[in-house]
Design goal:
With 259 residues, the chain is an alpha+beta fold. The chain has a single domain, classed as PPM-type phosphatase domain (Phosphatase 2c, domain 1, 4-Layer Sandwich), CATH 3.60.40. The chain is built from 7 helices and 12 strands. Strand 6 and strand 7 form a beta hairpin. The radius of gyration is 17 Å and the shape is globular. The N terminus is likely disordered.
Length: 259
């Protein structure tokens, strides 16, 4: 059974198009949250995949996205990449503290947390922060270059990096969905940061509800085939493909295209 997208938002500025959507998939409720920030000073797209019992996951993902967007709205334009990274660090720490405090003081939220992948696009370059197993990708038309920017913070990725398991074993391991890090699970927060040039045509952030249903090769083909189309259509094609392949989890996509 196909599921219509139950949330979407989109906006357009002079140099970039931004769009996001999320779908419940075959889960009983949606614990993902997507976010966009389209300010004059900088742009940002993000995806959070919540976890926890009952409604805790959706609370955690909502807190991290809403906190980041709210703080970005009052931040001045960062003068350089170093200051942009400091700004991103402040927002992530604030969100982590808010989630951890709530989970520590309210029993119904005990143990909640969320993944986060957020891309901050400045005049100089793009900064991507990743905590958990949500991902960021880029596609560049001129060089037909498709890149996965982030590395999953999961047990199987760690074991693979040590040479303890193969790529094939990663796909079938019972620990493949066990996270090494998440936002809100402790008073401190660990995340990876990546800096990339603004030479891409499409920047994609997504939850594992997408990447567990379609391969990187399929993602590349969809981005390549639709690089000249409206990003709303591109996002919908990605979602439809994941749903057609089973749609077992919440599926979330935030996408940015350079005009």
């Amino acid at each position: 059974m196909r599921h219509a997208a139950n949330y979407e938002q989109g906006m357009k500025k002079s140099s970039y198009q931004l769009y996001a959507l999320t779908d419940v998939g075959k889960r009983p409720n949606n614990e993902d949250q997507v976010g966009l920030f389209d300010g004059e000073q900088f742009k940002s797209i993000m995806v959070a995949d919540g976890m926890g019992g009952h409604s805790s996951g959706e609370v955690a993902s909502s807190i991290v996205v809403n906190t980041i967007v709210k703080m970005f709205s009052i931040e001045p334009k960062p003068e350089n990449v170093w200051k942009a990274k400091k700004m991103l660090k402040r927002t992530i720490k604030r969100a982590n503290s808010s989630i951890h405090k709530l989970s520590s003081t309210k029993s119904k939220y005990y143990g909640m947390g969320t993944t986060l992948v957020v891309a901050l696009i400045t005049d100089e370059e793009t900064i991507v922060a990743n905590c958990g197993d949500s991902r960021a990708y880029t596609y560049t038309k001129s060089s037909d270059s498709f890149k996965r920017i982030t590395s999953d913070q999961t047990v199987v990725q760690y074991l693979y990096s040590l040479g303890s398991i193969t790529k094939e074993e990663m796909l079938t391991s019972p620990k493949r969905h066990v996270l090494m890090n998440a936002i809100g699970i402790s008073s401190g927060v660990n995340y990876d940061t990546f800096e990339i040039k603004n030479d891409y045509d499409i920047l994609l952030c997504c939850s594992d509800g997408l990447t567990n249903m379609i391969t990187d090769e399929q993602i590349k083909k969809i981005l390549k085939d639709n690089v000249d189309n409206d990003i709303k259509d591109t996002a919908q094609i990605l979602l439809d493909e994941a749903l057609a392949n089973g749609g077992l989890d919440n599926i979330s996509i935030s996408i940015l295209e350079a005009e």
